[in-house]
Structures are given as structure tokens and as C-alpha cells.
Write a structure and sequence with these properties.
Elements (H helix, E strand, L loop, with lengths): L30 H14 L1 H21 L4 E8 L7 H13 L3 H9 L4 H9 L2 H11 L1 H4 L5 H10 L1 E5 L6 E7 L2 H21 L4 H34 L4 H32 L5 H21 L23 H39 L4 E4 L12 H28 L5 H15 L10 H27 L1
Antiparallel strand pairs: 1-3, 1-4, 2-3
């Protein structure tokens, strides 16, 4: 206040923001202030929570024991010996150092497919699955008449994986019967081994198949040549023309020498004895026989036009027949020997191709055989019971907190009014409500009324007994 001599003036300044409405700010409650009342609500509703926990536990136990058991049987296969090359080995070593899976990524980019991936593709093939479905009658097991449905369920119950580091294949089969689960897992290995051997497309396999067909043809030709050669030899008494010719020439020379000696002896005897002498006559007979044998060996008087003119009663061909027989004999003998040589060479190559095919064909080596599982793998009963109890308590807690929150809402709030109208409308449609003209609602009301009457009469009967 200042003195001016005339009239005092108040030196008062107006407050700022004059004329503006002051909006009161509500104090934000702390989390602890909200937690205590909610815990108090839950404590007051402890009986409801306890009943909900018991109900959830019983419901979880019921579900856990009603769900069918499942058993898992697992078998593991060793990776084939020829599944990786030197380049893949270097990439695998590099990926082991860097630890970022570079080997597998590079293998995929380069198009290098491991035998493990091939095995997985074969195990997932329709051929293998159809054989297993037919072998174990899985249509009846899975309660289906469709082959596709049975195949899909078999895939769902079978897990096939490959370890990228070790290359070990793992086959896990799940089934309600533990013995069937182990049998199906073992059957997967058997069918894999059989199908790999059937569909192998290696070069050694193609070579083996070609040699196999060629061997059949050569064997037929060899049998035909041997048959013709044996028939010719049997018909013409030709065992070995070269040796037979040498023996017959030596025999003819011997007979010629004996004939000369016999003639000389006959000349000497004629000078001493008469022609009717016994010794002279016997010498003459021996000379005649020697000449007959020489003529037979020489083939005197036989035709040389055909070797087939030889008589069957002759034990050996004559010297005159030997050149003609020698040509046919040599031809048949040569054909037989050529076929034998070809057959022997093809047989050796065929055996080598079989060995090479066995080396190139990926072999299925079982690391761990599938065994009958002793314990179930599903369902986890304790987990189901715990989760059911937890969700039941959580639902009861939310219901308790929601009901308290709903009670705090003003009766005139639009949301509460709308919720009341919706509840009344839905309640009017329920079976216990009075029919409002709808036939469907009237029929449902009659059923509900009969049910309520029977229930009430049953309670009245039990009441006096108690």
C-alpha cells in the first residue's frame, strides 16, 4: 500500500489464469493401495477359490485318465559311409569352427544331397507308408477306410529327423500299443533297406543289370554251341581230330610195317613149304587181315563229299575223312571255346559289378534297435491336473475381482445399463423363461419344466428319508 495524499490505492495484482475453470486432479493411487483390497477380496472368497481348485483338480484328473495312453519307440540309424565327399568334409570342419552351420548351408547351395536326406525322403514316400499300412492293418487301427487318411495319421504318429552334425537318423513311432510301436519302427528300417536296394540308380547297378542280361544271352549261345559240338562228335566219332589223326597215322605205319614183315615171311615160307601148308596159309590170312585194316584206316572206297556219310557202326573216322571232319570239328570247337571265353569274362565282370554295387549302394546300419517302451510318453497327467487346477483358481479369482468391480460401477452407467439389457434379452430366450410366442422357445420351455418337476419331486422324496 502506498500513500499518495489523496486516496489510498490497493496494490493487489489479480491471480493468474483468472476466469478459467480449475479442474481438480485426482490423486493416482499407488499399486500397494490397489493390491491390498484385491487380496482382501480374494481372502473373503477363499471358500469359492478352494471349491474351484478342488473342481479343477478333479476335472484335470478325469481328463488326464480319460486321454488314451501313447507309447514312443525310437530307433537310430548310422549315417552311410559314402554320404560325404572331401569338399563336404572341409565345409563341415569350417562350420564346426565358426559354429554357424556354414557346412549345411553350403551343401544346400551347392546341391550336395546327403544320404540322410535321401533316406528321409524314402521313409516318407508313399510306397513305404502303403507297405506299412498293409502290413499292420493300420486302417482298422486308425478307424478309417481311406488310404490317404491312414497315410496322414501314420505321418502324424511318426517323427523322422537327422542330426546335422553326426548325420544320425532318428525314427520315433508313437502308438497306443507299445508292441506295435516297436514293430512299426523296426519295419521302417526293413522297408528302407529293401527299397534302397530296389531303386538304386548307381552306375554299378546299371552295369550289373547289363551284364546280367548279357550273361543270359551268352549262356544260351554257349549251351547251343556245346550241344551242336557234342552231337557232331558223337555222330562222327570225333573226339579230337588232331590227336586222332596222329594216332591213326601211327597205327597205319605200324600196320604197314607188320604187313611188310608178314609178306617177307610169306615169301620165305613159300620157298620151303607148299601153298597148302598150314604156316603158309596162316601167314596169308594174317597178310589179308593187315591189308583190310589198312584199307579201313585209309578209308579206301569212301566218299569224301560229306562227313555225314560215315556209318554209325565204325568206331573211328578214316584218314580220308579226317580233313573234312577237321574243318567242321574246328569250327564247332572254336565257337564253343569263344562262347566259353566270353561267358567267363562276363562272369568275372558281373561279380566285380556286384561288389561295386554293394559298395556304392547306401547301406542301412542300425545304431539302436527299436524296443518295446516300458513307460508312456503321453499324456502328462500331473501337468494336466496342475494346469486344470491353476486355470480353475485363476478363473475363480477373475470372477471374484470382476464381480467386485462390477458392483462398484454406478447403476446409471451406460455400459452397465447395456449389459443389463443384453442379459435380460438372453435370459428371456432361455428354456426356463416364459414363452414369448416362439415355437422353439416354447418347446424348450416344456422340456425344461418337465425336467425341473422331476428334479423337485426327487428332492422332496429324499428330504423325508433324511
Amino acid at each position: 500500500m502506498t500513500q499518495t495524499g489523496t486516496k489510498p490505492q490497493l496494490d493487489i495484482e489479480p491471480p493468474p489464469h483468472i476466469g478459467e475453470l480449475a479442474v481438480p486432479q485426482e490423486a493416482v493411487p499407488e499399486p500397494r493401495d490397489l493390491l491390498i483390497p484385491r487380496l482382501r477380496l480374494l481372502w473373503d472368497a477363499r471358500k469359492l477359490l478352494l471349491r474351484s481348485a478342488i473342481a479343477g483338480l478333479l476335472l484335470g484328473a478325469l481328463i488326464a485318465f480319460l486321454v488314451p495312453k501313447r507309447f514312443d519307440s525310437t530307433t537310430q540309424l548310422m549315417p552311410p559311409d559314402n554320404q560325404s565327399s572331401s569338399g563336404m568334409a572341409m565345409l563341415a570342419a569350417l562350420s564346426a569352427r565358426t559354429g554357424n552351420g556354414l557346412g549345411s548351408v553350403a551343401g544346400d547351395l551347392l546341391g550336395v544331397k546327403t544320404s540322410g536326406a535321401l533316406f528321409i525322403g524314402i521313409l516318407r514316400s508313399r510306397t513305404v507308408e502303403d507297405r506299412l499300412i498293409e502290413r499292420f492293418d493300420l486302417k482298422n487301427v486308425y478307424w478309417t477306410k481311406s488310404q490317404d487318411t491312414a497315410r496322414r495319421k501314420l505321418e502324424e504318429n511318426t517323427a523322422i529327423s537327422e542330426d546335422r552334425k553326426s548325420g544320425i537318423l532318428t525314427i520315433t513311432v508313437s502308438d497306443h500299443d507299445p508292441k506295435r510301436a516297436a514293430a512299426i519302427a523296426q519295419a521302417y528300417v526293413v522297408e528302407l533297406d529293401r527299397l534302397v536296394a530296389q531303386v538304386s540308380t548307381s552306375s554299378a547297378r546299371r552295369q550289373r543289370e547289363f551284364l546280367e542280361e548279357r550273361l543270359k544271352t551268352v549262356q544260351t549261345d554257349l549251351e547251343s554251341a556245346e550241344k551242336e559240338f557234342s552231337q557232331f562228335s558223337s555222330k562222327n566219332n570225333a573226339i579230337d581230330i588232331k590227336e586222332q589223326g596222329r594216332a591213326m597215322v601211327e597205327a597205319a605205319a605200324t600196320l604197314e610195317g607188320q604187313l611188310i614183315a608178314a609178306k617177307s615171311e610169306l615169301q620165305g615160307l613159300k620157298q620151303i613149304y607148299s601153298d597148302n601148308n598150314v604156316r603158309v596159309r596162316s601167314t596169308q590170312a594174317r597178310i589179308a587181315e593187315l591189308q583190310n585194316q589198312l584199307e579201313r584206316i585209309a578209308g579206301k572206297g569212301e566218299s569224301t563229299s560229306s562227313a555225314a556219310s560215315l556209318q554209325g557202326e565204325v568206331l573211328y573216322p578214316s584218314i580220308r575223312k579226317l580233313p573234312l571232319l577237321g574243318v567242321a570239328f574246328a569250327d564247332l570247337y572254336r565257337r564253343t571255346k569263344v562262347q566259353e571265353a566270353v561267358f567267363e569274362a562276363l562272369t568275372q565282370q558281373y561279380e566285380l559289378a556286384k561288389v561295386q554295387e554293394a559298395k556304392e549302394t547306401p547301406s542301412v546300419k542300425v545304431l539302436d534297435e527299436a524296443r518295446v517302451p516300458e513307460k508312456k510318453s503321453y499324456p502328462p497327467r500331473l501337468t494336466i491336473m496342475f494346469l486344470a487346477t491353476f486355470f480353475a483358481v485363476a478363473a475363480a479369482s477373475l470372477f471374484t475381482l470382476g464381480r467386485a468391480r462390477w458392483a462398484e460401477v454406478d447403476e446409471g452407467a451406460p455400459g452397465k445399463v447395456l449389459a443389463g439389457e443384453v442379459f435380460q434379452t438372453v435370459n428371456a430366450r432361455m428354456p426356463w423363461a416364459t414363452p414369448n410366442g416362439s415355437r422353439t422357445q416354447a418347446a424348450a420351455h416344456r422340456v425344461w419344466t418337465r425336467f425341473a418337476r422331476r428334479r423337485g419331486s426327487a428332492e422332496e422324496v429324499e428330504g423325508p428319508q433324511k
